[in-house]
Each structure stands twice: as C-alpha cells, then as structure tokens.
C-alpha cells in the first residue's frame, strides 16, 4: 500500500480516501480539533456579501477544523481552533477573495461550570505576638451548580 499526497483536486475534501474502485479501501476517519472560539463576521460593503459567502464555503471545504454558521440574529459566525486560526481565515478572505470584513470580538465556545456539590472547611489560627490571644477564623464554603441541566465533561455550544 502506498500513501501519497495530491494537490489541485476539485471534488474532494480533507480526510477522504482515494482508491481503486474495484477494491475499495477506506482509511479510518480523521479526528479534527474541536472548535473552541467563534467570531461574528460581516462584509464591509453589500457588494462583498456574495464573495464572502463563496470564500467562506471554499475555506470550510478545505479546512475541516473551520466551521461557518448563522446565529439567531442572522449574523455569520465563523468558528475555529483558536484566535490565530480565525485571523488566518479572515486574512485569506482578504487576499484570495478580495473581501474586506468587519470582525467581532472572539468568544469562547465552551464554558466551564460546577458539576457537583463541593464543601470545604478551613480554620485559620493566628496567634498574636504581643498578647496571649489568638485570632481564629472558621470558614465553611459550599459550592453547587445553579443550573439544573448540564452534562459532565461536555462542551457548551450556545450562541
């Protein structure tokens, strides 16, 4: 079995297997990084809207770790593996597709939350140097999730 890299293919996407149709051979599917950051993006002019859409579709086909979607307010949202990844996407839109875009502030796609009730007790003793008294602080801390529904070790994908 030989493994090669091909460039310039028009009807394939990253991760697909090419082989002889007589003896199909499929490699295991590739795992791509999770989208951890998102930003809203819009073209600076209405004339750039179609070019931006075409560019984002093309870039998403080339890069499985990049995703494009619309939010509830009908804004275009791009998601990637980090800020640098999305900066590169916006730069490629400008260079390759001649699209000037306004970009929103980056937002994390996941949020950490408390998954179980935790209780901690700490007693602090500090003796005074010049007199016989001791300062004592006894603290109890109980933390629990405010949300009733969550999944342990999962990502939150809300917009």
Automatic annotation (TrEMBL):
Tell me where on the tree of life, at the top rank, the source sits: Eukaryota
* InterPro entries documented for this protein: EFG_II, EFG_III, EFG_III/V
Q: Which Pfam families match?
A: EFG_III
Give UniProt keywords alphabetically: Elongation factor, GTP-binding, Nucleotide-binding, Protein biosynthesis
Q: Does the keyword GTP-binding apply?
A: yes
**Residue stretches making up the Elongation Factor G domain:** 32-104
**GO MF term (any one):** GTP binding
Which PANTHER family does this UniProt record tie to the protein?
Answer: RIBOSOME-RELEASING FACTOR 2, MITOCHONDRIAL (PTHR43261:SF1), TRANSLATION ELONGATION FACTOR G-RELATED (PTHR43261)
Q: What is this protein called?
A: Putative elongation factor G, III-V domain-containing protein
State the species of origin.
Medicago truncatula
